[in-house]
Amino acid sequence: MGTGKLRLSKTxxxxxxxxPLAAAQADEPLRxxxxxxxxxxxxxxxxxDSAIITxxxxxxxxxxxxxxxxxxxxxxxxxxxxxxRKEPPQIYGSSQIELAWTIIPIxxxxxxxxxxxxxxxxxxxxxxxxxxxxxxxxxxxxxxEIHYQKPGAKPGEWITDFTTANEIHVPVNxxxxxxxxxxxxxxxFWVAQLNGKTDLIPGLKNHTWIEPxxxxxxxxxxxxxxxxxxxxxxxxxxxxTPGDFAAWKIAxxxxxxxxxxxxxxxxxxxxFANSCVNCHKVDGTTAIGVFGPDLSRxxxxxxxxxxxxxxxxxNLRAWMRDPSHLKPGVLMPNMQLTETEVDQVVxxxxxxx
Amino acid sequence: xxxxxxxxxxxxxAPWRLPSTRKAGxxxxxxxxxxxxxxxxxxxxxYMGKSLxxxxxxxxMEPPWLASASLIGSSFTIMIAEWFLKRNxxxxxxIWWIITVLMGAYFLGFTAxxxxxxxx
Amino acid sequence: MSQDDPHAHNDAVDLxxxxxxxxxxxxxxxxxxxxxxxxxxxxxxxxxxxxVGAIGxxxxxxxxxxxxTVPYVPVDERVKEIxxxxxxxxxxxxxxxxHREHVVFGAVHPYSAGVMGGxxxxxxxxxxxxxxxxxxxGSIWLPINLLAAVGDPGLANASxxxxxxxxxxxxxxxxxxxxxxxxxxxxxxxxxLPMLPAKREWIWGGIVTPIIWSALIWSTIRFIxxxxxxxxxxxxxxxxxxxxxxxxxxxxxxSTNVATQQTWSVSRRLGVEAxxxxxxx
Amino acid sequence: MAHGPTTASEEYIEVAPSRPGxxxxxxxxxxxxxxxxxxxxxxxLMYIGSGLFFFVIAGLMATLIRIQLAIPxxxxxxxDVFNRFFTMHxxxxxxxxxxxxxxxxxxxxxxxxxxxxxxxxxRMNAFGxxxxxxxxxxxxxxxxxxxxxxxxxxxxxxxxFAYSPLTSRAFSRGHSSDYWTLALFSGxxxxxxxxxxxxxxxxxxxxxxxxxxxxxxxxxxxLVVAFLVIIAxxxxxxxxxxxxxxxxLGAAFFDTQNxxxxxxxxxxxxxxxxxxxxxxxxxxxAIMNEIVPVFSRKPIFGYPIMVAANLMxxxxxxxxxxxxxxxxxxxxxGNAFFAITTMLVAVxxxxxxxxxLGTMHGGKIRMELPMLFCIMFLFQFxxxxxxxxxxxxxxxxxxxxxSYFVVAHFHYVLIGGLLFTIFAGIYYWYPKAFGRMxxxxxxxxxxxxxxxxxxxxxxxxxxxxxxxxxxRYYTYDAGRGWDLWxxxxxxxxxxxxxxxxxxxxxxxxxxxxxxxxxxxxWDAWTLEWATTSPPPDYNFEHLPVVHSRRPLWDLKHPDDxxxxxx
Lengths: 353, 120, 281, 566
Hints:
heterotetramer, A: Helix Hairpins, 15 strands, B: mainly alpha, 5 helices
């Protein structure tokens, strides 16, 4: 293999970097284990209830049938050659028993069908309350574009307040209505502790919603195979107190101040001299590209490359040298920057907060 | 042979008849074809009127009367050919069979031409 | 046999002649496809190959499929006589004749009795439940809507006032669910009651089963339907279940036993007669 | 019915065309026989043999996949290489391993079981086999064509269900999607040909007295399978044609950037894809239906209802396709409808499981290898069925779909279900096909290693699915709760591989050294045991006449034949 060392170091780096970094950036506890049996949001709880009854029923059936199988195998096993000289009585069947084990599954099925249809309706046809937060999530080959609706916009019409990427912030105990779209291929939005998955389909608008019960950073993933870097299309949902959320929104909606340090100013020039602006957007500047993630507030994010690495100076440098080293197959080209230019651009990017 | 000498239950002497392989095979083939074309028909209905940009089908497509006629006609000529075959008249079969092949070939050729025309 | 089997002769049998045309045709077709991902020239060769194969195949089967006559293998390589002594077959329980059986447990109740019992039980059960609704809660619609709330998301989240009102969807859902389940349980009674210890059918059907059923529902009700869990009155619930069990069990129990059809063939049970004449023993 | 073939042995007329210079048994002669043959038995064995060959290749791919996933952030495989592996593994296992092996069983056994000399269309049978055989190589040619070995060729990397628009020209450059499409398309032609052949054979070539009500359940099940094939495969072919039009001629059926629909492909694909699952699992039931009665020494419990359950499963399977699409945002009514139909499948499936238990109940179960595999099948298929019910609960599916839970579920169906019965079938019919028994010791090694390996590999995947691990990930971060389960899963592969090694060893070793089997080693009841092992080219000197579902029981107990009771 020959890459054991690299692998190990990367694993350790991932472990070591994530926790302190998150602590520095978000007060919310990290919830990296997306356990669907530990739901912390309204739709996920409803799903959990229907899952539990299904599991109970299935476990009971499993125990009964396995018990029957073991009993039959032990009780009626052949006891050697002498025993085999006689054939057992030839039984052809029994309408009564067969009917019984047809009806009982049907009754169980009826119960399950009722629970299923109710839960489907409760979750899918849930009314959107007036105080809901509206966001739009657009899937791209291997990152998430996130739009926040301008306050005061009428329901049904869409005015983008600001955009961000890969990290969604929502208030706790408030219904967040999420519209899902795709810019290229199929993706699927999945944050298991908040809700089940809904696909992002080009040409269609899908909807999902969450109503988290507690604050925290919830880890999600793209769950529909979307190409080379499907595995590194991670998603994080920061559930914040309403106060924190309001503050975050205001900060995001205002452009970052222009860089003051010389290196960062030079970095900004490099950024605009190269074709970065064709794909990336930085609020308050002339960079309005839309093919790559919005960088307006890059420095406030926890990770880069849709979760492929922690957002720190070292990783940003590695990314600027060659994005496909960190994320093989990524659509961002290698910009062939010199070492000085790399340092300068990274310095500029780190001012975007 | 043991199967022959075993006692036979009453009422089992009735002659043993089964559907002919030809009929059964043909029905299966038709079933397959209809499964195939039902998907095309569904796709056609689904996309009817959904062209994003002109030219629209109604503007450039004409009903291919001759090709359709030869396609539908070929099912009759093959029936005639089969009629000859059943009576062991090889010559008649060959004639009608070749006519069928030609009609089918004409249809395929015309379809290819139509496609070529549409795309280039 | 030979007269039934035109391909068999006294010491040989006609088999289709081995031929390479199918493999040539298949190879040609695959080349056609392979050409689409490499070079159209490959497709051209492939289609020629497939055409040659198809023509060769045609000559093989036209006007009659080719056969070759294959002799039987030597006598000592043929199938051995099947051992006729066989093994004895264990008889059924001592005292019972024979060793074959279609298992029948006690009397067989006609399925119609199950359906009737289920329907009658359903009516009585509905009366008890609605009486509870009317007397204790002041609304005949409450129990109906509660049942419908198991499957209907609209009612599941409704307030108590709404639950006491008439709901068309609720009525439809409740009636369908109630009748389906009742008929199924009625059928289950016809087949299961005879298997239970005799003479006590009414206890099993009228008391034990409803109580087990109620206990099952009680333990899982939070997951089955939170709405129902909130409002249900367990006394009334168990009472209506027992009423159902008694009525249904009674009707099933009283029905005349009929002969079972299970020894019949599939075709006869379905009412169509296949190729052989009926030979009911 | 006087017969004198026994005295006429010296009068054999050598009418078969002799091919000069080629003695029986020489290598060229064997190759020539295989190429020219139209014999259903040889073709059946060729199906199974080539299916097992592709099985080993696709299995090695799975091993590499598991090595990559053993630890978080592994760099053993590049993402593209990994994506090609899981695509090729899935595609190969379904289309050029599963389907051919089951067709091999059908080809070999159906004509003998119904007392026929060959299939209805022997040449078309050969054609069907060769179409499949070449399509397998066409699929694997993708590794060598295009950019070639250096960059692992242009092997398909779009997943075995090749969801659009990932297959459109914009997102799948080169020919990787085309290899997938063309290989499956040409293989599909072969499958349809074989299925039609099976139906016609079963309908038209039954021996005297073999009514539909007396056909072995094996034949019944394959009749249903063949019908499913001719109903389900053409839709796949149709949507593949549309995809080819998209890619080669610039149509836009599934190209979302030009007004096509991504959802339509999913509907079309699963209209094929779900019946396909039953095409793969019903043959498992077929093999169970033969082996369980013989080794329990009793007739199958509830023959009529078993037939009815087959038909019900096939019928329902045509109306459940969208349960693969609960997450695409269908209306709540649509979701509810497909959840309901899917749950209904549980009823006939339950009937089958209970009836097998009923067959074993009261019998004298001989714990030979075929039966061991069948008992494990019952246990594993039970788990697979129950996880299937969980997936049918649409809200639960919103969590479970495309997670490792699904991976675990369908491997319990396809390995725990289908593959175990294929093993059972091979242990059961190998003596018939080659005249020698498979070795018992090697067989037990195979059984235990593979069973343990299977559960160790796939059971933990249920749990990693519960913990939110999506499928088709080439890597994952540490600290998300998936590390341990993936490591266990990878360890299980070692046991499975060892099991397969002993299995292949057994197949080869027993061919020369196995114990002689005799005509009827298991004391069974269906017609294939009424001829020699291996059977002669013509199967039976004289076509049999049957009076009951167990013709050999009638012969073995002449005073007490079955037909008096059926």
